[in-house]
Design goal:
Blueprint: H1 2-25, H2 29-34, H3 43-76
Helix pairs in contact: 1-3
Amino acid sequence: MKYLKALALLLVIVGGVNWLLVGVAQIDLVAAITGSSFGDTNVMSSLIYILVGLAALTLVPTLFRWITADSASATVA
């Protein structure tokens, strides 16, 4: 499970960097790597986008655990 979360975090970071590049420089790194044009998708780029989205969804419970752990420790202090 630890490695799955690490992989999910890596994919989310890749997705975040891709969106940063799109916002700042109009460069879609996923499209460039997979050979599709900006704003267009092919099967490979769609698969990468789906994997990044699924990785983000798998990290949602981790976020809520962090939030509840922080709030629990704040009430004790």
